[in-house]
Structure formats: structure tokens, C-alpha cells
Amino acid sequence: MLTVHTDTKVHKMWSENVPAARAKSGDTVRFETLDCFGGQLKSEDELLGGLDWNNVNPATGPLFVEGAMPGDVLKVEILNIELGDHGVMVGAPGEGITGNVVCGEVTKILPVKDGIIKFNDKLSFPVSPMIGVIGTAPKGEGIDTGTPDSHGGNMDCTQIGAGTVLYLPVNTEGALLAMGDLHAKMGDGEVEVCGVEIAGVVTVKVTVLKDCKLPTPFLLGKEKAMTIFSAKTADEACVGATLAMHSFLMKELGMGDHEAAMLLSVTGDLRVCQVVDPEKTFRMEIPRTVTEAYGYEFM
Ligand code: CA
Ligand code: CA
Question: For the domain that residue 155 is a member of, what is the CATH number?
């Protein structure tokens, strides 16, 4: 199986990045990923302030997918996420929503064994692996891997895990898929600015879709379909995610404007992905029973 290693990584998603590897539509590819600190924090004595910020948020890739042309959609089936044996968390004044209520910088190493994260002597949690950074090259100027936008990027969406399907826009030939920033677990919002940051290996199947009308990024879970939207403010991201799903319901399911709005008001769950990155990300979730009732088949 084609493997993209961590020695080929980018810190900006950009149409001019040199491809790390090439795949055909329908291929399965493994991406080895570093944690969001680029593996720099190896002990609790190493703090956020000592980081080389040029090496933060590395995304492995980019993968050139043959046949992908601007206007297409790249279907990324997330088949598996393997995690390393420990995660890292950091906290510091000024970081995240809790940045004003913590003193001094702290780094915490969290052992991860047999699918369990040890948080402290009293608390352990099952892992809930997710991909924080995943995207294609955006239109025009490159976008740093710490920022989410319409190309995907640092969306920090807890739902992007194994068994889901992520639809991303193709803005440049080959799509140039890159990913990193795995979390062993994260709460919606990522309020302190990090999840349980961890290295790992992601296995995906990539397929080029022609004439796919889904608003992107779009995520398909086993029971939910989700539009994901990032914007400068949380308010704008809420509106964007909601209207993207409203548009999907009208254009793809043929619902009327009020009917679609009412459906979202009744069954749609507007949820936060993260509010700590340069752009904020929200998602609108609807149950897949809705698309099933209309006989809609996802590509
Ligand atoms: Ca992130
Ligand atoms: Ca992260």
C-alpha cells in the first residue's frame, strides 16, 4: 500500500506545493502523521514557549490524486486511524477560552494504552480518534495549516474519525490532499486550544468525483450527514454551516425553502467544532434518515 511518510510534510496548503506521492482515484493510502507540535514536546519539561513555531501543525503530504481537476470533489473515506503510545497537551496564558484563568505554562504527557487515555490518577478515558487537520490545496494563495477554511484545513471537528467520509473541494489539478494533527480525544470547542495531541497513521481511500453537487467540506457519518463551515467569527460560521445544509436540502433533496428551514430547526443540530483557531468552525448535522426518506444516494 502507498505510504506517505512524515519526512514529506507541509505547513501551508497550497497549489504550488510539490506532491509527496501520487495515487490513482480509488487507491488506498496510508499517511503517517506527527503530532501538532511536530514531535517537539518530548517531556513535561518542554513548554509551549520553547517551540519552533515554524514546525507546528505539520500536515503530511500533499498527495496528488490523478484525474482530480478543479471543480471536482475529492471523496476521502477514512478507513482507519492508528494512534501512538502517548498524547501531549499544553496550556498557557492567552491560549484558548481558558487562557485568562490559568497561570504559567504547562505541558502534560498522557499515556495511551489499549485504547485508554490516562488523564490523571482518578480519570481515564477511552480514545476517540479524530483528524484535526485535513484538506486540499485552496484556491489562490496558500493557507497555513493552522487555519481552517473552505478547503478544509485545521477544522478540528471531532466527527472526522474512522468510518466517516469527508468530501473536499478540488481547487487545483491533483487536489493535493494533506493531513495531520490527530487527536486521541477532544471535546467539541477545543476550549483550551488542544486535544490529546498525538502522532499516528491514517489510512484513507481517495476517489475523484465528477459532477458531485455536495457543499464542501461535507462529512458523512454512519448516522449523520454534516456541513462544516469556517469563518472569522463563530456567528458567521454558524450561519455558513446552516445555510450550506439548507442549500443541500433544497438543491439535492428538492425541498422547499420553508420546508428545509423547518426541518433544520426540528432535526438539525448546530454544533461547534472549534473556537480557538484563526477561523472558527461549526457544523450542521442532520440524521441520515432524512436523506434516506428522500431516496438520496451519496456518491
Ligand atoms: Ca488543530
Ligand atoms: Ca491539535
Answer: 2.60.120.580
